[in-house]
Write a sequence for this structure.
């Protein structure tokens, strides 16, 4: 029997962490609590993580995309975060934007950032955005899982 060793790190196209968190009354009490809940749910931060910079960046994206209905620049996000959270330097802001881009949540064009728009529907509607975003990710992964299981079944029949 031949066993081929794989370099798993090279196979990873995207990692998705989506947590099904309860929405308690405490979550909805403050803007910070709601933003932290969203960051935990989307896998942008981990449980127990105390750094707020990633939460602040996500909150600024939500503010501009779904409230102001505009695509912000780094300066606009910096100004927002400095006003409503705590001072953030540009390097930290860009780090979190790049992480969210690698996660597949946001994109940028002409120095402006935005949540990846849905293929159909209002891109400023949070329900449409989240439904289309996660439906796409999971359908893509689900198909691959089904294909590999079918391949395993075929190999089992050959034994």
């Amino acid at each position: 029997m031949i066993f081929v060793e794989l370099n798993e790190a090279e196979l990873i196209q995207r990692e998705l962490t989506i947590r099904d968190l309860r929405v308690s009354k405490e979550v909805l009490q403050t803007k910070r609590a709601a933003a932290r809940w969203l960051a935990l749910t989307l896998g942008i931060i981990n449980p127990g993580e105390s750094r707020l910079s990633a939460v602040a960046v996500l909150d600024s994206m939500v503010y501009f995309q779904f409230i102001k209905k505009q695509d912000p620049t780094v300066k606009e996000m910096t100004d927002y975060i400095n006003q409503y959270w705590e001072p953030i330097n540009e390097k930290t802001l860009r780090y979190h934007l790049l992480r969210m881009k690698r996660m597949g949540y946001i994109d940028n064009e002409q120095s402006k950032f935005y949540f990846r728009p849905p293929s159909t529907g209002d891109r400023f509607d949070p329900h449409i955005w989240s439904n289309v975003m996660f439906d796409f990710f999971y359908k893509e992964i689900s198909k691959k899982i089904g294909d590999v299981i079918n391949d395993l079944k075929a190999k089992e029949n050959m034994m």
Notes: The first helix runs from residue 8 to 11. Strands lie at 106-109, 112-115.
